[in-house]
Specification:
Helices cover 69% and strands 1% of the residues. The chain has 350 residues and is mainly alpha-helical.
């Protein structure tokens, strides 16, 4: 007797690929509206070209934010095409934030090549980011249909959250590792929700707005995206310490070497395990870590439970995203595709 065949839905990479294919033509058209110099830097940022105009050498990103916008529209009962303009706006804002982020953090590599400020200069990179910001707002403001104004308001609220989160991230750098002024894991969680979660929440919420969904549905989609953003940041923090440079495009232990306060380190320092004290001493000098010291610090973070706590944090927020998505009626097929993305985003760190 033969077993009945099992019909499986598309895999996470297939879902992301379908959404990228829908968004890419509109995104390319938007970028062509920029000043040619800004358009060149934008194409470099998106991984479409090299700094000298040659063919793209590496990753063009997963496209999680644009996928969320399209899938949220489908989940709200509209065709994905209704949310393409929102997906374009979110992608433009995402790259704007990366350009400015890399300057503020001093990051010299992204996706295995020089960041825009290293390739073109700090001033040009800031200007290109500003141009992308302006283009994102214009793109939504000129969206066809009755929902453009609501979409712009939704984006504006997100931008306010994003800069609040970035401000906290920068202020963390001047705070001590231990003692009354130390950054606590709950504070880092708040920062991640605003800096990273806000934009993923915006993507999902915009999909609902552009689909004409009721406010309760938009709120649930946006809340799911924010949870997903915190989980995404937690995984990025793991990759910033233990990620394969061939995958992350950054040197091994890159976050530790420049003493960046990330969730695994803060969770390790907050633990009562003996390794936490040794880690505090190692980090407390305030000097950037060389390769052996960074390797030792990574071992202490793991020994103190930082890696385990960060994975648990990611899974908690994935569960929060699932609860939000299941709190309102959504189209089953699109809901299944959103749910299929959730574990994929965490599995890249394990």
């Amino acid at each position: 007797m033969t077993s009945p065949s099992v019909t499986r839905g598309p895999t996470a990479p297939q879902i992301l690929g379908r959404c990228r294919d829908l968004v890419r033509p509109a995104l390319a058209r938007a970028v062509r509206q920029l000043h040619p110099w800004h358009a060149e830097m934008a194409a470099y940022s998106f991984g479409w070209d090299t700094a000298d105009g040659g063919p793209p050498p590496g990753s063009q990103g997963k496209g999680v934010r644009q996928a969320l916008a399209l899938l949220a529209a489908e989940a709200a009962g509209a065709p994905a095409e209704e949310a393409v303009v929102g997906a374009v706006a979110v992608e433009l804002i995402h790259v704007f934030s990366l350009l400015h982020d890399d300057i503020m953090d001093g990051d010299e590599t992204r996706r295995r090549r020089a960041t825009v400020w290293k390739a073109y200069g700090t001033g040009p990179a800031i200007l290109a980011g500003d141009a992308l910001f302006a283009l994102a707002v214009r793109t939504l403001a000129e969206a066809p249909g009755p929902h453009g104004a609501a979409a712009v308001r939704h984006l504006a609220a997100t931008l306010a959250d994003l800069v609040r989160g970035q401000a906290e991230d920068l202020l963390f750098e001047s705070r001590p590792w231990t003692g009354p002024g130390a950054v606590r894991p709950r504070e880092y969680r708040w920062m991640a929700e605003h800096k990273t979660g806000a934009l993923l929440g915006c993507a999902a919420g915009l999909g609902g707005v552009l689909a004409g969904a009721p406010s309760a549905t938009v709120d649930a989609l946006a809340d799911a995206g924010r949870h997903l953003g915190v989980a995404f940041q937690a995984v990025d923090d793991l990759l910033g310490i233990w990620g394969d440079p061939e995958v992350t495009g950054k040197p091994v232990h890159s976050d530790l070497r420049r003493l960046k306060k990330t969730y695994p380190v803060l969770a390790a320092l907050a633990s009562d395990r003996p390794a936490a004290g040794r880690l505090a001493v190692l980090l407390g000098t305030g000097d950037p870590l060389d390769a052996p010291a960074a390797r030792r610090a990574a071992g202490l973070v793991e020994e103190a439970g930082g890696r385990e706590a960060t994975l648990a944090e990611a899974h908690r927020h994935l569960e929060g995203a699932r609860r939000s998505l299941k709190s309102v009626p959504l189209a089953p097929g699109a809901l299944d595709e959103i749910l299929a993305l959730l574990p994929f985003l965490v599995e890249r760190a394990v």
